[in-house]
## 1
Amino acid sequence: MNTTLRSHSSGEIKFSGIIPPSLLKLIIKGAKPTAATGPFGDFLFQEMQSPEAVVWYNNYLLTKDDRFTDTGKLPEMELQFGLNNSFSSQTGGLGARKLHDGSFNLVYVPFVETELDFEKGRIYTTLDVLLTPALVILLAQYFPVLDSFLEKVAKQEAAVLCALDQSTTHEMKKIIDAILGNPYSGGTQKFYISTKVTELLIVVLEKITHYPTLHRVFFPKEEIEKIYAAKDELLGNLDKSITLLILSRKVGLNMTKLKIGFRQLYGSSIATFRLNARMKEATTRLNDTADSVGDICYALGYANPQHFSKTFSKYYGYTPTQLRKENGRKNGADDGKVN
């Protein structure tokens, strides 16, 4: 890591390769992990590198409320995604910001000087893609939305691409999942990351150019917390039938606010979010377990394997069995090293 992280309550945080047991389930294949444990809780940072970008998958589990200061002398151009829970920050040159769960932005700082506020009892998850300026400049000829941002970068002034953080789309989430689930190793892994990061940046710029988020989330904090609770309820009960009415009663928020707030935070309807989560979990189980297609089908709440396979095929364009066969071929192939 090129920065130093300090806890306001515990001082400078020391990192090692020892993974806290509480975060072991979040390890991803092929990434370089760095972790820390202390009175503040447990942190896990996982790094994947390519010539065009460095990808950091970050998880913070707090045991008490705390503020952290992140400092570094080098400039950073970073595509930031909030993946789980929202947190406040104060960045030199950019002022106060709040990165919401389900949102993203592109940020540049000539040096790192950021304060982060976390609350206890939560796992905060972010994906930070450190981009080379060359890649962004290359795409600027196709996306004029980058012009004013790059003018500030050229002057080494802190800059944020969008005045409002943007909603992460389903297409972006699928690319992020592909990056985190990178099936390759060696040189092929780096090439895959480069390809996916470029694809992700293009999708981001397309969204900002043609379908920008124009309105802030106006829900008060307590209602946003209930929307987060609804998301957790959906993810924790993929095998169960749950209606909007039941969900709204469980979290204590009326159906209209829940529907509108969920779409504002996550960029999709509740039904689409649930389908996306089921398909992601299905893919994980098909790739990482020996469970039968039938077992996976019932574990995700589908009535029968035929319905599950039809839904999966419509979603991805290939069947669960075809995915298993392709995964088997990759596992039986070479290690991806480039001579």
## 2
Amino acid sequence: MAAQKRKDPLVWGVILILFGALFLLQEVNVDIWDNVAKLWPLAIIAWGVWKLYFGLKERQEKPQERQGPQ
């Protein structure tokens, strides 16, 4: 549970940096919104892969924690 709390600020930090970069590019007349509008499903796919990877990784680590020292 403590590991989850440490990951959340990192994820939100990355999200804020990405949004800031998008707005900065818009201000310097780089038309990024057309590309974002076309490619936004990739963000959902990446999020799903990320959740799947860390979910499987956590599932594999739990049995090792239950065994304890031998």
## 3
Amino acid sequence: MTSFPSIDLSLFDIGAPWRDQVAAQVDSAASSFGAFLLVGHGVDSGLIDTLLELGGKYVKRGSGSDLPGFHDSVREYATSLTGLGHKLMAAMARGLRLDDGFFADHYTGNPTTSLRVGDYPVALSPGGQPDTDEAGNRRVLTIVKPGDFARAQVRYEQDWLDVPVLPGALLCSVGPVLQRLTHGHYRFAQQRVSRAVTGARPSLCFVFEPGMGAALTPLAALRPRPDVEATGSYALARC
């Protein structure tokens, strides 16, 4: 049986040699599976629980305009997940033997982000409009907190692997842009997610994209990987 990877990101902040070890784990998981679970990610568990609870009410109402604390929690969560996205990109850069700030310097220094609660997009700024892009063709990373009773599977070779349920863990997935930038070294893996039962807390799906205007030129130091399509043409599962 092939086990789905789980990575403790807290070790990345300790410094050498742990920083290199975590970077190697992220590189291996992203290149082999295209997805991995994150523990020790630093996102406050209380904030996650609060947003899951408020998210359930948001989905029922179809609006968060009269839901106290909802938009504040959304903004705080988006800020935390943006920082997590930057840390993951630094780990990936190190895993590729690049400077930690390579992706931030060239692609994601001022990222575009979006958040979906269940099936509903949410505006991340006051008065802003939610991102309703369904194609997902600019995704670098997707970071999901699964909702109650939701079960995810990731395509690995010819099989579907069950993503383990770990308390507090976040599911991070390689996006099609990252696959294309790395010539297929990092995989955009096919996924499928079961629907949560009625009344359950919905999933939180955060998308981390390049900044507007970033030139998405593939890394010259990497060669195309022959066993992976560099176009990222896999079907994208809804969070």
